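Quick start: what a row looks like.
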Amino acid sequence: MSGPQITCDQNFSKTENPAAPDMLEAKLWDNPCPMTFRINYLALLYNTPLYDWIQNTYGLKRPEYVVLYSLALADGGSARDVSRTSGFPKNTLSRAIKRLELMELIEARSKAPGGGRRQALHLSEKGWALIRETRPVFEAQEKRMIAVLSDGEKQMLSELMSKVVMAAQAWAGDLPPDATQDKKKGEVQ
């Protein structure tokens, strides 16, 4: 079975090395962590060309565009909100937000109602124009990615993935207890 290739990949087909196992087959079916492989593989194939396009066309780095996209979905969100939902560290997002303000893609920050240090972020009209121009490409890429699924399968996948995302608070950020139990730093057993 051969999988999709991204432009920077080399083609390691069976004809080049017939004795080598099929890496995609192994990662799909012989992998002790098959779901995370599938999620990461699809995310890489989806994200890499899109964020390369954003950088090459609009001069925005991935964290910068993630801030814009996040605010297009939840206007008035904070840097903390973007960090919690994207995985980018706060200091990376702070730099991204400063640059977006300088580029006039987001409005100058204002205090959120009842918010202490939390500052509400809003897209400027220029930021909204950029989102209106770019979001259809992201949507089209997702449609291409899931075109192999029926409408019912798409709904089921969406619901299952949502369930996993909503339960992430129970495990994200920590290793399983038995991974750290009775292990000393740097000790190999």
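That is the whole record. The chain has eight helices and two strands. The CA atoms of residues 114 and 120 lie 11 Å apart.
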